[in-house]
Design a protein that fits this description.
about 300 residues; alpha/beta; Rossmann fold; seven-stranded parallel sheet; two-stranded parallel sheet; 11 helices; 13 strands; globular
């Protein structure tokens, strides 16, 4: 398997101020890349490395012109902004006179058996990438639930509930399986795609090393926080969905998401063998990763 050096490459990054993007930007700079970041909100500039090798392009992933400006002259484009903008990215790269290396993050939401508007947006975004002109050398990554650091939107939310609730509701008896992905393992996989030409034209599913029951995940989070695990109480899923829908109809700001409860009964387990074999992907066990999250806060 051949490896291309990142040092000296000009990489255009969208979504660089996001949870994953901030960490990826730091890693790429450490590896000697020249980094050009699309910045939509100027107040978020502090989330990016303060480094002479980092260039800022003001704009939006919704704008083909902004994307084209950002990608001009870049060796590689990494699109971490939502894949719903896949068509705009393809249009921005369509008229280049040389091959364009493109790495895109999608979502395992596409693999759910429960249809949703967000799933449809992911499907359309992936289709735009996969049907791109031949000179756009794409790779698609489908990460599972991402966590790590104090700014993730997944484990942090559960942690807040664990702090407040001595009794924790578990829909579908808490036996549904999940396979969370440590953010630094995702960063490593993206870097591997930049380095490995063999990843061109491939789609990889990325998740933790093995599935764990949802109830066990809750207990491991509490342990990492230094808290007593809450009493996990099974709650019937079907009546809970009806209640959540009713609450949503009466209160648009309701934090109880019917789609979340509906998906609770689905085992979110994934085959990551392809990424292991072709990207040397070696994800961190959840217990170890969640301890790092709360101990190191990175």
């Amino acid at each position: 398997m051949s490896i291309e050096l990142i040092e000296g490459k000009l990489i255009f990054l969208t979504g660089g101020t996001s949870h994953t993007g901030r960490r990826l930007a730091a890693r790429l700079v450490e590896r000697g890349a020249r980094l050009r970041c699309l910045l939509h909100n100027p107040t978020h500039r502090g989330r990016l490395p303060d480094h002479p090798g980092v260039e800022i392009v003001q704009g939006s992933a919704e704008s083909v012109d902004d994307l084209r400006r950002g990608a001009e002259g870049a060796d590689t484009v990494i699109h971490l902004a939502h894949i719903r903008y896949g068509e705009q990215v393809v249009q921005a790269l369509a008229n280049r006179d040389r091959p364009a290396r493109l790495i895109v993050t999608s979502s395992t939401r596409l693999l759910s058996r429960f249809p949703s508007e967000s799933q449809q947006a992911v499907r359309q975004g992936e289709a735009a990438i996969q049907n791109a002109p031949w000179h756009i050398q794409w790779t698609i990554l489908r990460p599972a639930m991402i966590f790590g650091g104090r700014d993730d939107n997944n484990i942090e939310r559960l942690g807040r509930l664990i702090r407040k609730m001595p009794i924790f509701p578990l829909f579908s008896l808490g036996h549904s399986l999940v396979q969370p992905l440590y953010v630094w393992d995702l960063v490593d996989a993206i870097v591997a795609c930049v380095e490995r030409p063999e990843a061109v034209g491939q789609t990889y599913v990325l998740a933790g090393p093995k599935p764990i029951p949802y109830g066990e995940m809750v207990r491991q989070i509490a342990k990492a926080m230094g808290k007593r695990p809450p009493l996990c109480v099974p709650v019937p899923r079907a009546p809970s969905i009806l209640f959540a829908r009713l609450l949503k109809a009466l209160w648009s700001g309701s934090p109880v998401d019917p789609d979340f409860i509906r998906r609770f009964g689905e085992n979110r387990t994934f085959d990551i063998s392809k990424a292991r074999q072709e990207l040397a992907f070696s994800p961190t066990p959840f217990e170890e990763a969640v301890q790092k999250k709360y101990r190191e806060q990175i």
